[in-house]
Amino acid sequence: GQQVMQIPQYQHVQEGEDFTTYCNSSTTLSNIQWYKQRPGGHPVFLIQLVKSGEVKKQKRLTFQFGEAKKNSSLHITATQTTDVGTYFCALLGPGNNRKLIWGLGTSLAVNP
Amino acid sequence: KAGVTQTPRYLIKTRGQQVTLSCSPISGHRSVSWYQQTPGQGLQFLFEYFSETQRNKGNFPGRFSGRQFSNSRSEMNVSTLELGDSALYLCASSATGAPTDTQYFGPGTRLTVL
Known about the structure:
The structure holds two protein chains of two kinds.
Chain A: E1 4-7, E2 10-14, E3 19-25, E4 31-37, E5 44-49, E6 55-58, E7 61-65, E8 71-76, E9 85-92, E10 101-102, E11 106-111
Parallel strand pairs in A: 2-11
Antiparallel strand pairs in A: 1-3, 3-8, 4-5, 4-9, 6-7, 7-8, 9-10, 9-11
Chain B: E1 5-7, E2 10-13, E3 19-24, E4 31-38, E5 42-50, E6 53-57, E7 64-68, E8 74-78, E9 87-94, E10 104-105, E11 109-113
Parallel strand pairs in B: 2-11
Antiparallel strand pairs in B: 1-3, 3-8, 4-5, 4-9, 5-6, 7-8, 9-10, 9-11
């Protein structure tokens, strides 16, 4: 079955440093979604990527979909303490599979 | 629009008991999905309901069941609770139920089984 690996599992950075989390799939994807969950909160939708090689930006966040549509990355430039939380990718495989497959998430801690 | 609401927010039960959790989706949303979240296991999909029909199901035992009402509100039931059922249970609603839809999550119900 479809598998998703999200790395790293944890990342601890100094405020102002950059951060990247990667999401890798064993199969070609039709789309990928990214969510953020603050400590004690619930997942909140950030973005959806559907096109091969697609790059989308939200202020300091840059999202990229791999050319082969098997991986994606989320890059945060100059982290702030407000970026603390767990970042999840959710994958949708091709065909008739209607279920989102969730990565285990990358937990980001930011030292002020 | 009001967001997704879940009740109760916290629940403490003992082994062997059963529990019912409730989820009210965003007005107009017809799809409700349920997830179990535990440390180290991430979000585990339980099931999805659309127009009162279960459309997808995850790999959970039959002790976990759900239903959806005509107003799209959904309930999840867990019978014969086990210690391992302690988790945050999240529901998410989406507009059309298409897997490409954005999922809007509720605050969750924190279940503790003693």
